[in-house]
Amino acid sequence: MNKEQFSKARSILGKTQKQLAQLLGVSLKAVQSYEQGWRSVPLHVERQVYFLLVNRRQKDQPRKRKDCWTQKKCSNKKNCPAWEFQAGHLCWFLSGTQCDCTVDKDWKGKMEVCRNCEVLASLL
């Protein structure tokens, strides 16, 4: 997650830097540093930000979530934890997903792929 995406996520969440820092369990200085690009956003913080985005409430209209297996026309869903736990909108959050592009990757490698996937990209 780059500084622009981090700032956009904070804006979408409607939080001040201080409020987001409290939600993420980091210092205000850390949030400021992520937004300025002085520090890269750690993977665990990025994961928390996406989790907050996917679970935010929208006042004007509820989102219709599309499951990953539908969006990606998955043929291996029966062996995937996203299918097992009916978390197709959280596939990027789960380790061990069976997407051709992320299977057998460590967390860092998985997130590099997921950042460019339409399932996760729809959050920003």
Automatic annotation (TrEMBL):
- Family annotation (CDD domains): HTH_XRE
GO MF assignments: DNA binding
Q: Which residues form the HTH cro/C1-type domain?
A: 8-37
Q: What's the protein here called? A: HTH cro/C1-type domain-containing protein
Protein's organism: Desulfolithobacter dissulfuricans
Q: What is the lineage of its organism?
A: Bacteria, Pseudomonadati, Thermodesulfobacteriota, Desulfobulbia, Desulfobulbales
